[in-house]
Amino acid sequence: MISPIPVFIITGFLGAGKTTLLNHILYHQTTHKIAVIENELGNTALDSIVLSQENQSLHIKTLQNGCICCSSHAELEMTLLELINQLSTHQTEFSRLMIECTGMADPGSIIKKFLTHDLISNYFQLQGVITLVDAVNAPYQFQHFHVTQAQIGYADLILVSKTDLIQNRYQDFIKQLAYMNSRAKIHSIINGRLDLTLLDQLNGFSLSSQPNFKCQELPSNPLDTQVNSFVIRRSEPFELQTLSLLFDKILINFKDQLLRYKAILYIKDIPERLLLQGIQQIHNSEFGSPWTGSEAPFSELVFIGIALPEQEFRKAFNDL
Q: What are the residue boundaries of the CobW C-terminal domain, all occurrences included (predicted)?
């Protein structure tokens, strides 16, 4: 079995710059042959760089740089399964897959396909969710289209466009995004020009023993958003059984609010750190490297969701 193909999900509201970013990636990377799945058939910007060779079942088109673009009226799962069939029968080949979501799409359902479907997860490895944010129009969008908040909550990398037009409130806006998602990296972007090394650094769905969570205070005039995130840190060890019961309770009580969560956990009488991550009610965990004699064991958890009660969570974990 070959190594799974890395997958990147590109999301963001209408006009945020998703297609501009995608075209930049297709034209300027030289290492990978990329397959692109479009949610909408006949994306004009990508059609403009199509050469030839169309497969009727998936509408696979060969692009000028040797990459391919496929669109389908079928559900995403059927499209992925057809791609797997063509990979296994050597009808096509590629080394990266990018999915451009429609502007109104909640990426949660797309993410779950790669985490819960055995065959899809064997062929594809989800590397990260890239969310484009229009700095000028985001305050209005946050207020009127709640999907824009969810798109930020799921992100591993947030790319902010049009920042030159909000110079007087740029820092407060970046703080707001960091408050909404404590674990995503945030970068400004102009005309889709992305530092492509950021893609190589994305590994948002792997279990990692390296903490990279951050806390961010709200700006003085916070935007009206429901998505929030917070980090819980603790130096005392957890009892594994009581911790598992608490997580089970959280997944039941907040099933409609949780977006993403990730943790490094210090478990009593166990020499290795426990690594955990999840999206909504889907989660996985494994024991990682052992704590060394030169480091003080700790636990660090980050939760991202819709109106999560931060103080209630803190009390629940601190009382264990």
A: 227-320
